[in-house]
Amino acid sequence: MIRAYLASDRTAIEALWEDTANEISAFYHPAWRSYERLQQLDQVLEQGETWVYLHQMQVVGFISLVDTEIVCLCVQPELRGKGIGCTLLNHVRQFFPHLQAVIYESNRQGRHFYDRYGFVTQRRFTQNQDGQALLLMQYHPHTTFDTGFPSFELPMQLH
């Protein structure tokens, strides 16, 4: 089930955010510590729109947008590959058919996910604090892609 973010979700969202930070910390400059990441999370939750994915009444994924930019898409690591990320994207596409995301070029898992969903790289740039290459990826609804992803919420078979 997907629903709008509630303040009571903060602890679960923070844990997912930190899991993601730990996994992709190789992309971040060592000076960017968890304090700065938590400040960024606060900004995302205050300025953007966030939806959570619930499984057995627990938050196991979330997506946050500022305008039409996906600033965070996190899924509990052991539940990845089960359609939760795609279901969250399908949900926000109802409201924002033209989406964009900025990801590290070296983030192979993220690039693969967005590529498979139908996002197209528009440009490469390095305007960030650590000097690593970033990709601006965009999704347009009228582009035909064979993503293999359903446009409905998947019946989850999670154990």
Question: Brief overview, please?
Answer:
With 159 residues, the chain is of the alpha+beta class.
Q: What can you see in these coordinates?
A:
The longest helix has 14 residues, at 10-23. It contains 4 helices and 7 strands, in the order βααβββαβαββ. It has helices spanning 10-23, 34-47, 84-93, 108-117; strands at 2-4, 49-55, 58-66, 69-75, 99-104, 120-125, 134-139. It is α+β, with helices and mostly antiparallel strands and 159 residues long. The chain has a 7-stranded mixed beta sheet with strand order 1-2-3-4-5-7-6, with helices on both faces. Helix 1 crosses helix 2.
Query: Structural class of the secondary elements?
Result: alpha+beta
- List low-confidence stretches: 29-33, 144-159
Kindly report how far apart the N and C termini lie: 16 Å
Give the amount of beta strand, in percent.
25-35%
Morphology: globular
Q: Roughly what is the average pLDDT, rounded to an integer? A: 81
Kindly state the percentage of residues in helix: 25-40%
SS element count, helices: 4
Rounded Rg: 15 Å
Number of strands: 7
Order of helices and strands: EHHEEEHEHEE
How does the major sheet shape up? Answer: 7 strands, mixed
Strand order of the largest sheet: 1-2-3-4-5-7-6
List the helices and strands and how they pair.
Layout: E1 2-4, H1 10-23, H2 34-47, E2 49-55, E3 58-66, E4 69-75, H3 84-93, E5 99-104, H4 108-117, E6 120-125, E7 134-139
Parallel strand pairs: 4-5
Antiparallel strand pairs: 1-2, 2-3, 3-4, 5-7, 6-7
